[in-house]
Specification:
By secondary structure, this protein is mainly beta. It has 2 domains: about 120 residues, Immunoglobulins (Immunoglobulin-like, Sandwich), CATH 2.60.40.10; about 100 residues, Sandwich (Immunoglobulin-like), CATH 2.60.40.10. The strands form 4 sheets. Strands 2, 4, 5, 6, 9, 10 and 11 form a 7-stranded mixed sheet that branches. Strands 12, 13, 16, 17 and 18 form a 5-stranded antiparallel sheet that branches. Strands 1-3-8-7 form a 4-stranded antiparallel sheet, with no helix packed on it. A hairpin with a 4-residue loop joins strand 7 and strand 8. The longest helix has 14 residues. It is elongated and about 70 Å long. It is found in: Secreted.
Length: about 240
Amino acid sequence: MGIVFMMSLLLLCFTSVSPNPVLLQPESAFVSPGTSVSLSCTVKNRDISDRWLRWYRQRPGMTPEWILTHKSTNDGGALFRGSEITDRFTHSRNDPKNTVTLTINNVELKDSAVYYCSIYANAMFLGNGTELHMIDWKLQVPSLELFPPSHQELTSAEMVTLTCLAHGFYPGFVDMIWKVGESQTQSGVTTSFPKLESDNSYTMSSYLMVPVSDWNAKEEYSCLFKYKSQDTLVQKSISLNTCHL
C-alpha cells in the first residue's frame, strides 16, 4: 500500500504544471492630444526576465494591430516596432516587479484604441486591455436616428423592433443606451460594434425588441448616445403617439 502511495505521489509531482501567467492592465486611461500617456502591464505567475513582451492595439471597428516587441533582458532587451509605429511609442521593463510600460508621446486622435500586452509561455497570453480615451478636445456629435417598428412586424409579430442609428461620430468608444419611459433597460437590446467609415468617422446601430402590446400601449422609448470619455448625451425619443406609420 505504501509503495502504491509513493508512486502516486511521484506521478502527481511529475504531472503538475505551473499556473498560467495572468497579465493585469488598467481598464481605461484618459489623455489629452499632444501630451503623453503611460500604460502599465503587470505579469503574475511568471518571471518576465526571460520572456519577450509584445503589445497590440485594436481600434474600434478594426482588426488588432501589432505595435512592438521587447526582447527579454536575457536576450539583450532589443525593441522592435511595427511598420507604421513611430518612435512616439517607447517601452520599458521592470523585471524585478514583473511590470512593463508602454508610453505614447505626443498623443494623436488616431491613438484612441484598446491596448493589449502579451507574453508567450507555451501559449499566447493577453492582458485584459486598456481603453485609451481622448479628453479636452471637441467631439464629433453624431447624427442620431430612431425608427419605429415596421408595419409588417406590427401586423404579424408578437415582438417588434425599434432601430437606432448613429453616424458621423469620432472616436469610437461610445455607449448606446435604451430607456423605456424614464427607466433604462438592457432587456431585448442588441448593439453592433462601431464601424469605421472611409471619412474616418464611425457608424453604429442598436436595436430594442419589445412586445407589440407594449408598443401599442403608447409607452415612450428613447435611444441615448454617449461618449465614454465625456458626459455629453444625444437623445432621440419615439412612441406610437409621435410617429405616423
